[in-house]
Amino acid sequence: MRTTSSSPAWIFAFALAAVACGGVEPPRRDCTTVIWAKPERAGNDLAVEGSWDGWGAAQPLERRDDGWHLLPLDLAPGEYGYRIVEEGKPRLDPFNALTTFRGEEEVSLAVAADCGSPALRVDEVAVDGDRVTVRGTFLATPEGGELDPASLAAALRDGTSLALEHASADDGAFTFTARGLPRGKHTITLTARDTDGLEAPASRAVAWVEPAGASWRGGLLYHLMIDRFRGDGGAALSPPPTAGSRAGGTLDGVRAEIERGTFDDLGVTAIWLSPVYTNPIEAREGRDGRLYESYHGYWPSEPREVEPRIGGEPALRALIEEAHRHGIRVIFDVVPNHVYESSPRYLENRNRGWFNDGPNQCVCGTPGCGWGEKLPTCWFAPYMPDVRYQTPEAMRAAVDDVVFWTDEFDADGVRIDAVPMMPRAATRRMVHGLRESKAGDEALFSIGEVYTGPGPKGIDEIRFFLGPYALDGAFDFPLMWATRDVFAGDRAGFSAIESSIVQTDAAIHGSGAVLGRMLDNHDTSRFISDASGGAWNDPWTNPPPQPSDPAAYARTRMALAFILTLPGLPVLYHGDELALAGAGDPDSRRVMPDPSAVTPAQEEVRAVVARIGKLRRCSAALQGGEREPIAVGPDVYAYRRDAGDGDPVLVFFSKAKSPVSIPVPTGAAPPGAYVDVMTGESIEIAANGAVALEPLSFRVLLPAGSPCHNPSP
Length: 713
Hints:
Radius of gyration: 27 Å
Strand content: 25-35%
Structural class: alpha+beta
Number of helices: 15
Helix content: 10-25%
């Protein structure tokens, strides 16, 4: 394979085709590193300077007739920094998203591949019912033998072999198939040798049979904190002795709930687990002066070990296998910004440039170390050394960690913690590593925590970390705050929500990003406590009670219906489906209620989530349809989701104090008979008609003939 350090996708594809089909049989790897660039001013000459010669004199690029300039480089395998030079001024390569560092300066990254072994390239992974087909190409070394067809093998994780349908030494092409595969995820490892006996590094491909969600876009992600969810066998947990103590939740407790069908009943397509790293046993003092244990998992002391107190590796593997049998994906919460102070990685590499330690070390939020001015380098806590990504070895270790977790445990992606506390280069390198590790449509997914405030500033902060070569998604915090302002209270009208959605859609247009939409999370107060007035003091000594006010539950049901019918990836935090109360962290991390203690009001909330969650699995409109507003007012809101299949979904909200009729202008929705999926009520919408709503209520309407009235789990 030719390694191009900077080129648009079409040039990269062309280069690969030329290598594979350029009249040389068999196809061979070409590890030439090629720098591609275009001048900012037409007619300018370009040059490149890089670390391959110690940042010596800039080398000129060859001008081509199509406007591109290029320079082939024969480099030893490894990573190199470089800069494009135009009119004597060095700059980053705008056509290359990957970067590294020269001291503190960010520079573009070129990766020279090693052609000492052949390579297996996966070209296609196709799924048709229970049949999976994998097509690929064997690329020989520059001087070595061709493909030995007898050496080709493809196997599932359980050792089951796929059938070799076709193999050609002439063009290196091969095809494997498997038939009769059960529902779930199938990770395929491919191996081969050349006729000299030289083995290609294994390649991996992912195929899903009957997944719960066809893609991340339009799915439903369930976030749970393992320690606060369920005990072994799915046992209900007692509240911990203090808000900062362990409650005893385990991975087996999660597995038991998957087996029980709890997530199927809610329409969940993916589960996000809190961090599973080994964490320290001792309690530490928090910013509030109280003691906290590492129940949450965010103090990684062993970057590649599973915490024994939640069940260790065997329990994690069993959980993921069970989830995959249900067609449910699993993502890990990775914490690359910092380690715990007893981590071997810190002890072995302290004061060697791997961490922001030494005389300039400081803790975020302390005097002279403000969050705004020191965010990329400050320590989250005095016992959490902050990783310094300007050091190449630290960068590579973090990227390898992320790939390790998804490879070793067959996970389906990652949620990356504290994204703004690291240089953007770090998350881009992690995402690149994930995409290189497995082939297949959406084989691995990355979503980042870019914690922001409300409004356009927050939207811009999120946008900075998205793009085709960056994170696959991020959490929509600006919309979360707007949703709370509108639905939890009457601090804003529905135009605030509509404005946030429109501004965000415009900001991320073309990025391909999937936005996670939520009501709350483990760091914020719970939505229903906000809807109840948010009147509490110290969450340790005076936490908000579970509300009894029917209006608070009505507002929660409306807000959940809202996020569940939006484009993107709705995110439920454990307990949202039961309107679980709570102040901010740590009170927002209460244990999942015992089923026997769930009230009728909470059951009503769960019924809304289950009904619309399963509807998302059925409805093409909710999975990926366009959203068009029908009505936007201070107290009323309506929109249409439509995938063009004749089965639109119409959604209406009212937080008015008396019954209202929301107009449906001609052309805003197809006239005809509809059914409210929550109540079963038949509703006729005439041309230029209206839909009636009671106070603090919502409707989700499907055409009367829709096949999604009774979706299966």
